[in-house]
Amino acid sequence: MATEAFEKRAKTQVAIVGGGPSGLLLAQLLWLQDIESIIIERQTAAHVEGRIRAGVLEQGSVDVLTRAGVGERLAREGARHSGFYLAINGKRCPIALEALVDGQVTVYGQTEVTKDLMAACRAAGTEMHHAASEVALHDLETAKPALTFRQDGARWRIEADFIAGCDGFRGPSRQAIPAERRREFERVYPFGWLGILADVPPCQDELIYAHSDRGFALASMRSAKRSRYYIQCRADEPLEDWPDDRLWEELKRRLGPEIAPNITTGPALEKSIAPLRSFVCETMRFGRLFLAGDSAHIVPPTGAKGLNLALGDVHYLSTALAAWYRDGNASGIERYAEVALRRVWKAERFSWMLTALLHDFEDDDSFGKRMRLAELEYIFSSKAAQTSIAENYVGLPFENVLA
Ligand code: FAS
Ligand code: PHB
């Protein structure tokens, strides 16, 4: 591309598209290895820090965040959970993570993870451009890839050694790979999750994933004073059809008569409907572009894997880039996609399996509904089945991305 007259130019080692959890963590891990990066983010910093999304961190994610220097508040305020519950029409089955696989998860909202990472990147002096528009990627198959974008009226061109596409499912990075060079797999589910965040105490000390004749429900939390609940709804359901009172009543019906009396209701701090899909773009590397997080893959939130997979990709990518800069070891960047995908596909399987198991599918026949109940009854009766769920929920181990 002819280099138009750009008002502002910069050079860096790694240009990062997207300043959400993936982009921020990558910048922070690279900074700790004396590798320079610049983050280009479409939204304002306040918008990014205000997003309400995931809530559960695998131990591997806690370890990566701690290594990145943002583990202090997480250790202080994060709630460690040694189990969760599955429920069928109100009948509960504990999945005892600690007893089954000697594992735990930490409940600590993605909103807090993002705030901690943003503070760390600011403290490190990482260059971040927020409210950037017209972000475009160039020359990806050369040794000098570049980003162009507009910010505050100025045109920018940033040249880098590598570009990290951390711009989520709808960002430009994956689309910068020619369609004929992308290997993609997708399943879109015929329902969504209606989520509510409220400053009320949780109904139970552990998470409850509930299957009921009326559809799926999840009881989660952010702290002892703040609860997060979800119910399955139609993907195209208008949010205004769900005033708080109706939502609380439906939650009580789906969680069942034993749990319902423990549900404290209150005004929604946030209420939104998220569509559910499984998606993988196996082309996680294209020339000097590397995709990480939601730009490469999406899971239905049923298995609490989305954020954890993103942080896992960044662990692999930062290790690979550090080895390249430190001693010219290119094995990590050569193996990144292959190694990351092995963990991605196992999490896709687990998330798809739990989604199929716990949700109601309108086109299901009577046999399909019976099979679902039989699968759940089997899990309720089998330590081996519960161990398999526990092993996946706490997070599968990382490989060494370097040869
Ligand atoms: P993100 O989407 O978080 O960040 C991408 C960043 O790139 C954003 O800040 C975006 O503004 C920016 N960007 C986009 N286009 C750009 C452009 N053109 N130029 C520059 N920047 C651009 N996961 C769970 O584990 N549990 C959950 O309950 C859960 N709930 C979710 C609910 C919703 C509504 C969504 C959308 C996702 C949810 N997820 C959940 C998954 C979510 O947590 C992701 O896995 C996580 O945010 C991934 O982080 P990133 O890869 O950084 O992508
Ligand atoms: C949440 O608390 O937002 C949450 C927890 C577990 C999930 C999904 C979302 O599987």
Describe this structure in a few short sentences.
With 403 residues, the chain is α/β, with parallel strands linked by helices.
Structure overview:
The protein is an alpha/beta fold and 403 residues long. It has a domain at 8-81 and 103-186 and 277-361: 3-Layer(bba) Sandwich (FAD/NAD(P)-binding domain), CATH 3.50.50.60. The protein contains 12 helices and 21 strands. 46% of the residues are buried. P-hydroxybenzoic acid is lined by residues 54-56, 207, 220, 228, 301-302, 304. Arabino-flavin-adenine dinucleotide is lined by residues 17-23, 40-43, 48, 53-55, 110, 132, 135, 166-168, 170-172, 274, 293-294, 301, 304-307, 310.
What share of residues are in beta strands? 25-35%
Q: Report the bound ligands by name, code or SMILES.
A: arabino-flavin-adenine dinucleotide, P-hydroxybenzoic acid
Structural class by sheet pairing and helices = alpha/beta
Report the CATH architecture of the domain at 8-81 and 103-186 and 277-361.
3-Layer(bba) Sandwich
Report the mean per-residue pLDDT as an integer. Answer: 97
Biggest beta sheet summary: 8 strands, mixed
Shape: globular
Rounded to an integer, what's the Rg over CA atoms? Answer: 22 Å
Count of individual helical segments: 12
SSE diagram, text form:
Layout: E1 8-11, E2 14-17, H1 21-31, E3 37-40, H2 45-50, E4 56-58, H3 59-67, H4 72-77, E5 79-81, E6 84-88, E7 91-95, H5 97-101, E8 105-107, H6 110-124, E9 127-129, E10 133-138, E11 146-151, E12 154-159, E13 162-165, H7 172-175, E14 184-198, E15 208-211, E16 217-221, E17 227-233, H8 244-255, E18 268-281, E19 285-286, E20 289-291, E21 297-298, H9 306-327, H10 331-358, H11 366-381, H12 383-393
Parallel strand pairs: 1-12, 2-3, 2-13, 3-9, 6-15, 13-20
Antiparallel strand pairs: 4-8, 5-8, 6-7, 10-11, 11-12, 14-17, 14-18, 15-16, 16-17, 18-21, 19-20
The protein binds arabino-flavin-adenine dinucleotide (FAS) and P-hydroxybenzoic acid.
